What does this fold into?
Amino acid sequence: MKRSLSFITFLILTAVVAAFAATPFCHIRHYDEYDGLSQRQVKQIAKDSDGVLWFATWNGLNRFDGYKFEHIRPQIDDEARSYSERFRDIKPASTGGLWCRIDDKILYFNLSTHRFTDIHSQLEKKLATAFDVSQIQTATDGRTVLKCADGRYILLSDSNPVESAAFTDERPKLKYHSPGTRKLGNVGGYRNEDLLYSRADSTGTAWLITRDGTVLSAPSAAGPYSTIARIDAPDGSLTCCTIDLRGNIWLRSNDGAFCLTLGQLPYTYLAHPEPSIVRGCVRDPKGRIWISYSDSKAVAVYSDLSAAPRYLGSDGHLHDSFVSFGSPIYSMSADPQGNMWFGSKPDGLFRLTPQSADAYSVTNFRHDPAKPGLTPAANDIYDIIFDRQGRMWLATMRKGIDCVLNPTSVAPEFIHLGQFADYPQNAVRVRRLAIIGDSLITAATTGGFLTVGLPAEKRFDRTSFRLHVSRPGDDSSLGNIAVMNILPDAKGRLFIATESDGVNMLPPEISADSDSARFVHFDTRTGMPVDVALSLAPTGSADDILVVSNKMIYILDPLSGRTVTYPASFWHRHMHFSEAAPLRLGDNRWLLGLEDGAISVNLDRADTALRPVPPVIFTSVALQNRPDSLISARTDSIILSPDERNITINFAALDYGSTEDLQYQFSMDDSDWNNLGTNRSVTFLDMDPGEYRLHVRSSDSSGNWLDNTRTLTLIVTPTFWETPAAYVLYILAILLIIVSVTWTIVYIRRMKRKQKELLAAYLRLVDSHTESAELSTPPDSAPQQQQQPSTATLSPADEAFMGRVMDFINQNLGNPDAGIDDMAAATATSRSSLNRKMKSLLGVTPADFLKESRISRAATLLSETDRPIKEIALDCGFSDLNYFGKCFKAARKTSPTAYRREHRTE
It folds into this structure.
């Protein structure tokens, strides 16, 4: 886990505060093995041309993107494998790589391939002598000078180091690169050589870092200088190495690396003797600002925030030095007559009536059961507001809401709304109140959002109450019953701060006291930074509101749902805000309450906004769930092989200061942006072949999207079966299948047609034989030869076979005992062969052919003769008249009698 040391000097804690004066800060982050460094002995830190930081350690080279250290280890076939991993120095080369000194050898590291080249061995071979390197110096003209242990120098060109290398006895007179960290010379009583860093920022503030780790600051180079931080590093081990893209200063030591962020705080603490929770901030009719501190039971009054405060005593007088008021004040308000009203816990209500410019008469109203209607219902008063009729409303933490009808009278009349039967008992703990018009009071309670409808005739016994709560399964109900604050705006909208569901909003067209109230939710599910909302305030713009959470504040645009956040990186410390409503001072300046005091802040003074936009780089990829592989910061395309369809891509914005607050978005090709939150990776599964363009961008620490979009082209190589040639084969195969199926269907249909035609022909032959059999034939006449149907499609063998079948049919048509076995014997075939042969030639079984022949003959006899149906049935081989009727009806769809009537031949 990152170890962070923050040193901020607040002179305001011991002297008169100078509000809005620039307060310098120094934020120090320390990195060692526990943060991912491969070794805490850091020998050099270098920034490459893409802004990525590289660390030379005694356990190899490390790359850092602001989030994670990557240990670069030589691959198995890398030329650096023959050396140790004790890196003693690294310098950026003009060719985009790194010159690396490992012990006393010089190697070149390629940032694109992440491979080392053993330049040292090549130089020794070219120069025909061995040498040891003690120092690397790079020049601005693209050349590098190697200082040797024997005092000589080697001058070489980065583009062609081996061929251009040459010894020289003197250091070449070139313009060398410098970290640029010392610009002020002898300053602040320090010699230039005693300083690691001396520069003035854009505001003119001078900054010094001494060799012993002291960080000093002054309004200008002339001073006076004050110590604002100290770097905890071993004596004499600090070296200032580089400045990153965001202006952070990087130092190395024998105990790790240090990153220093220098700047001016955008806020100023208001002086107070001791840390104390701020419960309220209010401006009185004279323009003075009142701040209540509950822990110290004090009330500070500022005529001008640039001046020292005065403190209100229990005697009602304003004192120039600190005094306690005597009661912890939780709420403050001013009435139109100039009186100040305090709500206390547990001392009830205070009225401060002005007696002079510096004095008030103090009247305390405490709950007294013996005086109902003349004292408040409870002594824990969290809020005080006034309506247009001059009535005062009190929010109590135990007894609900009180109304004070005549607050300026000697004996004000208190109406306790909690006494009415309809008052919800879950809403007696009230934090805040807000008035809508003249007839509706809204209350933030621990049991929900309460509305109080006041009758026009001012009859409080007719007051209506409605408590809005969170209903399971109803997403349009209140998000959480623990309501912290309420803010009605000029557009009729009502904003509700909740303890764990962010901000809920009632649109202007929906009445707050309606049973059908539908709330719009602004929480982490809809992109809000946190779900805790303590208080709300209008910003002065038409739509935006300021939301105070427990650890940050943010500005919400309810129309778009966008936010501008002010997280810990804006404050440069961990803030703990109180429930006090923020007080707008003008020009986006605010007074905010904390759990340890109050601050005035200029929200326009975002220190990070003055720094360069951090670029987004792609850091590594993982293919097919394999381990991550580092890629160059300049990688603009990745080609996936045919068997690689899943990829995870990691990226980072090179901020190096407030990376924990950065948000990311991605889009593929021209699609809409997709929010990733703080996640720095995106995964694509089962990608189709083709070319894709992945776009990634980041926000700043406040949530504003930056113009730093980076694009990566993904080329998914198709397998052979996904190539155009394969698709041509698919089309040909489909066409072949279609042709084959079509031909088969046509063939089958043709065969069935031929079978039907042949069957019909043989059945006609049966009928013709029947007619000839009915004629008288002389006994001595020669038998007539049976005429065969057209059998051009039959082979001689099949024709002979069918002749034998027809002989059997004609001879046994009237024989009811004739069966398939008899037919098989007559045709000289087996039963199975007979069945196959008949199916192939006629499409019917032998039994079906015999039955159809009998039915066909019966139909002919029915239509052409007057013979009785029973006689025809017997003559056609049916011994049972009923069975004959069923078979005939199944074949001809009508009964024998009906058939004779329809087909009778005159």
